[in-house]
Amino acid sequence: MSLAGKKTLGVAMVGYAFMGAAHSQAWRTVHRAFDVPVVPEMKVLYGRTRDAAEAAAGKLGWAQAGTDWREVLGRDDVDIVDICTPGDTHAEIAIAALAAGKHVLCEKPLANTVQEAEEMVAAARAARERGVRAMVGFNYRRTPALALARDMIAAGRLGRIAHVRAQYLQDWIVDPEFPLVWRLRKESAGSGALGDIGAHIIDLTQFVTGQRLTGVSALTETFVKERPLPSAATGLSGTGSTEKGAVTVDDAALFFGRLDGGGLASFEATRFATGRKNAMRIEVNGSTGSLAFDFEFMNELHFYDGTEPAAEAGFRRILVTEPDHPYIGAWWPPGHGLGYEHTFTHEIRDFLLAVESGTDPAPSFEDGLGIQRVLAAVQDSAESRSLWVDIPLT
Ligand code: SOE
Q1: What are the residue boundaries of the Gfo/Idh/MocA-like oxidoreductase N-terminal domain, all occurrences included (predicted)?
Q2: ipTM summary value
Q3: Measured from the CA of 22, which atom of ligand 1 is nearest?
Q4: DSSP secondary structure string, 213-252?
Q5: Does the Cβ of 196 fall within 6 Å of ligand 1?
Q6: Domain C-terminal end among 94, 109, 139
Q7: In ligand 1, which atom is closest to the CA atom of 271?
Q8: Are 123 and 104 contained in the same domain?
Q9: Residue 308 C-alpha to ligand 1 middle, in angstroms?
């Protein structure tokens, strides 16, 4: 029992760089912001090297540090495993943790390949039978403005959806001297901009419209083919040595597809949009209205109501800071705004509610597998230069 008289759940986190720091912030604060039925206890953080793991545990608020995540499988005081490592380790850690009866939160994309994702789904299904839950961390779904967009579309405010225009624009590797960090290597990341940020806009397109992509056609490009090997790197920064290595993932991916509700969707995911830092944008056009969002202005949602008289109609800005807006009631008075980190707090709040109520959290591992299939279809289309690749919807 916690001081507040609530049940506690022990948490272990594997990995501690950018995503680990973002998740730690959420584990530290979720029960202070939200009236969740359980209080997370940050038991142990795992990393590869002892000194770095200990320093990260101290800084991020974990009680202990360890260098072998397998240790967690036998720990009775750990109920939840949070996976914040590069994609090549997701499957092994998630499958072992689920088999050991731990609830799992796994960073996106779910895996590096469809096969790994299928194995993770099989493990999650077996665990579900035993009341053990699994969720993949597409945090941007928990941006209040995007949760509001989904609610408005579900309520029919846009009518029949014709178009989704989604972009995720970053520029952190435009400099050819930026080193060959793990996100630029196929063996650790699976793909480049496509899986790292394209996966977010695929998820959001399906999330806000409530529709699935049924097929795609794609182009990918690697603008800088060789980069200095990293001498030091963390998160999205690093320094390079004099030796170079091949970049084995895409720098940019462009694709378009069909939605099962009849609409068309276009996507652009790039790390070469100079000046765009985290411009994750989505516009949805329906028969009676449109919505537009840009994460660089994350507290705003733009709405065009096509049912208004033409003389007065026009896009208007909804400032998504009202207590009636999704998640906002837990935070500040109207107009005071939230940040990137809150999306993770909301994600972990929803995860804890699902775990405690014995329901399935969303997005599930099945949803993660669906996105993995879209990523594979995009790669397939781009590599084979074939026009169209269908996506199985099972
Ligand atoms: C790097 O492109 C990255 O950190 C992604 O991995 C995250 O998912 C995104 O939120 C921010 O950018």
Answers
A1: 10-138
A2: 0.96
A3: 10
A4: EEEEEEEEE-S--EEEEEEEEETTEEEEEEEEEE--S-SE
A5: yes
A6: 139
A7: 2
A8: yes
A9: 38
What's the number of domains the chain is made of?
Answer: 2
259 lines ligand 1 (CB under 6 A): no
Q: Is the CB of 197 under 6 A from ligand 1?
A: yes
Q: Ligand 1, closest atom to CA 200?
A: 8
Q: Which domain does 187 fall in, by range?
A: 143-364+369-384
Instruction: For residue 300, give the CATH number of its domain.
Output: 3.30.360.10
| Alpha-helix residue ranges (DSSP H) falling in the chain | 18-33, 50-60, 90-99, 114-129, 144-154, 186-189, 193, 199-209, 340-357, 365-384
Q: How confident is the model at residue 239 (pLDDT cuts 50, 70, 90)?
A: confident
Instruction: Quote the ligand 1 centre to 72 CA distance (angstroms).
Output: 27
For residue 28, being part of any structural domain is answered with yes
Q: How far is CA 189 from CA 139, 174, 197, 242, 381, in A?
A: 18, 19, 12, 23, 19
What does residue 305 show for φ and ψ, rounded to 5 degrees? -100, 105
Task: Give the residue, by CA position, lying nearest to ligand 1 atom 9.
Answer: 197
Check pLDDT > 90 for residue 242: no
Q: Which atom number of ligand 1 is nearest to the Cα of residue 18?
A: 4
Ligand 1 pocket, 18 CB below 6 A?
A: yes
The answer, as to whether pTM is greater than 0.80, is yes
Is residue 206 within 8 A of residue 372, CB to CB? The reply is no
